[in-house]
Amino acid sequence: MSPLSIPDWNDIVWRASCYPQTDGLDIPIVVIRRPKMDASARAMVEAINATPTKAVLYFAGGASQALGWMMSVPGASSTVLEAVVPYSRMSMIQLLGKVPAQFASRQTSEDMALMAYNRALKLSQPGFPALGVGFSGSLASSRPKLGDHRFHVSTRTSNHLRSSTVTLSKGLRTREQEDKVSSQFVLKAIAHACMVPTTFVSELTDSEVPKELEMQFNEDQELEQLINGQICFKVYPFLNDMSRAERKIILSGSFNPLHDGHLKLLEVAASILGEGYPCFELSAVNADKPPLTVSQIKQRVEQFEKVGTTVIISNQPYFYKKAELFPGSAFVIGADTAARLINPKYYSGDYQRMLETLLGCKSTGCVFLVGGRNINGDFKVLDDFDMPSELKDMFIPIPPEKFRLDISSTEIRKSQGML
């Protein structure tokens, strides 16, 4: 097949690189048809791409043209972090982690939007609004449907959930036309979630009135959702820097209280790495204590607002889970924490389990910057520990001449009469 046989230059042509170019052999060509879009739809996509919103899109059962429109306008990478089409039943079950009561339903689209929102949080940089979009549809197919032709669209942001259900007039449109109408609706829903004004007119008839559901969440409700595990973390971007750095430099702790040592340690770690977004991380869920209350979280967050630095509230107390939550990040830890990480005692005495757990962290692209700490009266640095050879390149020392602090939060609380 030759590129000259392509009927429409609006098509996107990809030459399969996995096939070596050999004289006398045809080179396979994959032709992907780009769905046609009118000027108003294009203008809407351009306006969406001009916002700081970062989105993950999960579509099943239709609206394929919306994906094409989003991806065909220059600047798509500034908005779309990931687009997934879980089309088969098993794909949907694996995405949701359960068998949905109905595959095409409002509840399923809301579950998809929540999963997409959590995924967008993990993939986007702190400070950028995250958006999850879920679409589930039951449109015209090769066999007549006994039930309605309908689709469900849900969008989830940090403080807002919006769901819409549209029942289409059966027999009025072809499958391609139903896909176009549902795609138009999805595009408008994304624009609305990005707070983009639009005069875009859909092709729904007067009888095809969407059933709408909207929910707003205040800060307390967001934090309750975090504690309960519905959302994976919440960002307070007090740094006020819309950084494009993909790597997060994270100092985790309880921060009770936040002190100058924490601030200086993160500053030094950031200077060593040279590139990244420095932020603190507080887990609302503890390994051996009750979860923090909403009021406790808000009190500790106030400390970061006062000094103007970003803090992320998560629900994962263990570093191997934090690595999954913040892939590619650099975690700033003390030598005492490093000692615990490589001690089989904390893995039920199983050395191999310790190694596999930390290699799992390594596979996410995470590293650990280790600062010196007083341990039982002795100042210890990374070189004082026998690090497994498989893990050595994952641990980076912070030289004591660049940072050393011999006081802990516990000692500060004692001195202030907080214990």
UniProtKB/TrEMBL annotation:
Keyword annotations for this protein? Answer: Transferase
Any idea what this protein is called?
Answer: Nucleotidylyl transferase superfamily protein
Pinpoint the Cytidyltransferase-like domain residues: 251-414
Q: Which InterPro entries match?
A: Cyt_trans-like, Rossmann-like_a/b/a_fold
Q: Which GO terms describe its cellular component?
A: cytoplasm; nucleus
Source organism's superkingdom? Answer: Eukaryota
What GO molecular-function term can you cite, just one?
ATP hydrolysis activity
